[in-house]
Amino acid sequence: MKILKFGGTSVGSAQRIKGLLDIVNPADRQIIVLSAVAGTTNALVEIGQTFLAGKSEEALDLIAQHKNKYEELIKELFSTEQGQKKATNLIDYHFNYIASLGNELFTPIEEKIVLAQGELLSTTLFHFHLEEIGIPSVLLPALDFMKIDEDNEPIVSYIGEKLGALLAEHADNTLFITQGYICRNSFGEIDNLRRGGSDYTASLIGAAIQADEVQIWTDIDGMHNNDPRIVSGTKPIAHLSFDEAAELAYFGAKILHPQSVFPAQRYNVPVRLLNTMDPQAFGTLISKEGGTNGQIRAIAAKDGITAIHIHSSRMLLAYGFLRKIFEIFERYKTPIDMITTSEVAVSLTVDDTKNLEDIIKEVEDFGSVHVDYDQTIVCVVGDFGANTHGYTAKVLDAIKHLPIRMISYGGSDYNVSVLVDAGHKTEALRSLHNRLF
Ligand code: ADP
Ligand code: ASP
Ligand code: MG
Q1: Which of 45, 184, 333, 338 is most exposed, with the fewest beta carbons within 10 Å of its own?
Q2: Is the pLDDT of residue 104 over 70?
Q3: Which CATH number applies to 2-218?
Q4: What are phi and psi of 144, to 5 degrees?
Q5: Cβ atoms within 10 Å, residue 160
Q6: Residue 118: nearest ligand to its CA?
Q7: Which ligand has an atom closest to residue 193 CA?
Q8: Is residue 391 predicted with pLDDT exceeding 90?
Q9: d(CA 64, CA 128)
Q10: Where in the chain is the domain with CATH 3.30.2130.10?
Q11: Would you identify the CATH topology of the domain 297-436?
Q12: Residue nearest to atom 4 of ligand 1 (CA)
């Protein structure tokens, strides 16, 4: 069984939704994971924020504006009166529901319910479209099987069990459709896998049911060797290992959700990145065997990083010091991305600043603390194994004209990362590209 995930642009218009059948063969047993129609989640974020700010009238205007777009979309998508009617009822239902939440006390719980409506809409519209043209499909409600625990970690065994049972109920069906991004949390509330989370859904499903392959269909022909939004002349990479792809996704290559490689890697399910606009293009195959020895593969950048520098003479020759520092971050459930140490100082970076103030207060018990905001991690992925030489020098040489705050090398064989001020990101990506490729 294959899992095919289509992103927002791939379902971004009536024409695109109809065009999915150029790629999807209804006779193959497969699960189609859909994102919300392009622009929808951004709109829902804005609506949620506006309700949270107590500006209900403004939020209702935004809802009406966005509903308009769906009214246009269904005019084009459905050709029968019955199809139009069903789709009209559907969008009425979802947009009235969103509006009705604003009447109650609107909290982050309602906000997440609002965010979930995009994927519920896109999947049902596709299901109705297939129904109208006579192709049988089964809509699988992601909220019945996609679950995260109290640490926001997906529970793969639960997903496999629940989804397996749902699939078994439809042994004669081939085409299944489900929502990306949305899930339930440990309280049973509607939650999500963070922005871009539909990739993660696809990989989790692939892992949970041991699929043959996960395909991520998007608007570009695979993982490029640098950020195509910033650097010109980037090229797709045909093969990547799970480790390489995981580093690139984690360190900012937007084509993949940061955590989406891990489930596929853990259960050894190959992942293909493919282009909906050019289905014949090879794209990228991510697999166990995908790596290439002795080469630099790609560059990525992760924005919104905060660096925390802790200086303490108590660290000198002491043991247990780092543990105490790390425990503070652990207590606040704040992951650390990058770390460098000297005899009397340690610098580390985080991207989740929700509890930063409290963390800093506690860390200050151990020494003097300096914080740099608005930093970027630039990450070069390739074969930096113990037997290679010269690549790190090349990386540093390429950006020798830029101030570097931190360097991380040797943590894994696949990556060298540097921390720069966000203002230097573009120049760093371009200089590295010119020097390395
Ligand atoms: P989808 O909506 O299909 O999930 P995304 O916008 O999340 O699509 O991801 C695809 C986009 O990721 C591309 O259009 C491209 O601009 C951007 N991107 C950033 N870095 C890379 C990279 N290294 N390789 C390919 N695409 C990248
Ligand atoms: N619709 C969600 C988002 O825009 C999830 C996704 O597209 O992957 O973040
Ligand atoms: Mg995406």
Answers
A1: 333
A2: no
A3: 3.40.1160.10
A4: -90, -10
A5: 18
A6: 2
A7: 2
A8: no
A9: 23
A10: 297-436
A11: VC0802-like (3.30.2130)
A12: 7
